């Protein structure tokens, strides 16, 4: 066991604050990683504030982790001390069910282990995430990071990146498709980059007029302000796909009408409250609503390699650990360009 510094929420209505805890001693297949950068995902905020229910306190969020290996267990074969690595949302799964066998560990039928707020399958302790100095993870849930890209921009790929890459690949989005990305935050800006990189024509749907220039720089060909009813109406029956990244309750039906016949809304945002979908908007034009959860380990490595090859990183604002509560407030206002990333040297 190693005493480790981190930042934790002690209750849903409490700000995050310094917290010291014990990281487990290395098991034979574990690696220990000194965390250099950790991205700030809206899921961290949902969990720290118990917006989805089920948060166990103290809660140390953080699942966009990049760092260097400082120690390896006796049976580790995949990594060496000194290598640059990443850890995303998952730290374990059953590895035997049909989904795990296909590299879809995010859909493990037995139940996977999340990087934070999840019982460890061996000792039952609650997992603690990346807002901390170091983490101990089974080698099978660790990704290899290229040193060709700026590491602070790589960290958000471990969640925002894979969460948008995976559905775009699953639905084979590319050349000839008109794709709208709904919400320009952490996930949204990666969705724009990937969809444009895959050859699709991208429209940004945003509530923030100030983000238009950035949306175009990120790869969008068009921008529409969703607060303007005339602009919304003009987009009726326009898109093959809408990638919905919105974190707050909103009217899905307003956007479903923007899909062409046979179009699909891919939901990745997880607002805390359920929403009503009007069946008529689906039936009338054979539209579909789908969803997607992060990505499995093989696809996450594929995405990291794709980004290294195509020079794709997240646009980040690097912050000190102590800024985390202000960062959460700004994220709630949609005021993030486009991912906060904690420099762990500041802890
Ligand atoms: P984020 O950076 O806060 O971005 C969310 C964006 O949604 C905002 O920047 C804003 O963009 C837009 N938005 C916010 N409130 C809105 C409203 N009421 N109506 C319309 N648009 C609104 O959050 P994120 O980190 O990208 O995460 C987004 C969601 O995805 C969260 O719910 C998170 O938990 C979830 N998530 C899911 C997965 C998965 O595996 N499926 C993985 C990671 C995160 P504009 O200013 O452009 O309007
Ligand atoms: Zn996340
Ligand atoms: Zn499984």
Outline the low-pLDDT stretches: none
Could you say which small molecules are bound to this protein? Answer: NADP nicotinamide-adenine-dinucleotide phosphate, zinc ion
Total number of strands = 17
Please state the overall shape, judged from the principal axes of the Cα atoms.
globular
State the helicity in percent bands: 10-25%
Radius of gyration: 20 Å
Put the structure in a nutshell.
The chain is of the alpha/beta class. It contains 11 helices and 17 strands.
Kindly describe this structure.
By secondary structure, the chain is of the alpha/beta class. The chain has two domains: about 1-160 and about 295-305 and about 315-345, Alpha-Beta Complex (Quinone Oxidoreductase, Chain A, domain 1), CATH 3.90.180.10; about 160-290, Rossmann fold, CATH 3.40.50.720. Helix content is about 25%, strand content about 25%. The chain has eleven helices and 17 strands. The model has no long low-confidence stretch (mean pLDDT about 100). NADP nicotinamide-adenine-dinucleotide phosphate binds near residues 43, 247, 250 and 270. NADP nicotinamide-adenine-dinucleotide phosphate binds near residues 183, 269 and 270.
């Amino acid at each position: 066991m190693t005493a480790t510094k981190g930042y934790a929420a002690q209750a849903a209505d409490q700000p995050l604050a310094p917290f010291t805890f014990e990281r487990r001693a290395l098991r034979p297949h574990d690696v220990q990683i000194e965390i250099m950068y950790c991205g700030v995902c809206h899921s961290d905020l949902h969990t720290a504030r118990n917006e989805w229910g089920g948060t166990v306190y103290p809660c140390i969020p953080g699942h966009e982790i990049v760092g260097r290996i400082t120690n390896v267990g006796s049976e580790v074969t995949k990594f060496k001390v000194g290598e640059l690595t990443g850890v995303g949302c998952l730290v374990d799964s059953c590895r035997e069910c049909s989904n795990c066998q296909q590299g879809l560990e995010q859909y493990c039928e037995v139940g996977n282990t999340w990087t934070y707020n999840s019982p460890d399958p061996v000792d039952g302790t609650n997992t603690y995430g990346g807002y901390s100095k170091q983490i101990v993870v089974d080698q099978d849930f660790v990704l290899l990071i290229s040193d060709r890209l700026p590491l602070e921009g790589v960290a958000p790929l471990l969640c925002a990146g894979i969460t948008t890459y995976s559905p775009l690949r699953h639905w084979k989005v590319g050349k000839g498709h008109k794709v709208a990305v709904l919400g320009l935050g952490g996930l949204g800006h990666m969705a724009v980059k990937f969809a444009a990189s895959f050859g699709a024509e991208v429209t940004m749907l945003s509530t923030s007029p100030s983000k238009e220039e950035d949306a175009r720089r990120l790869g969008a060909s068009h921008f529409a302000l969703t607060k303007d009813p005339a602009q919304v109406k003009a987009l009726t029956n326009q898109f093959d796909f809408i990638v919905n990244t919105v974190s707050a309750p909103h009217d899905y039906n307003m956007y479903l009408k923007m899909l062409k016949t046979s179009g699909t809304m891919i939901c990745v945002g997880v607002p805390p409250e359920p929403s009503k979908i009007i069946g008529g908007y689906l039936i009338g034009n054979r539209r579909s609503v789908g969803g997607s959860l992060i990505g499995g380990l093989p696809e996450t490595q594929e995405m990291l390699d794709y980004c290294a090859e195509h020079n794709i990183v997240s646009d980040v604002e690097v912050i000190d650990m102590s800024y985390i509560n202000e960062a959460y407030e700004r994220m709630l206002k949609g005021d993030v360009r486009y991912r906060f990333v904690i420099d762990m040297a500041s802890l």
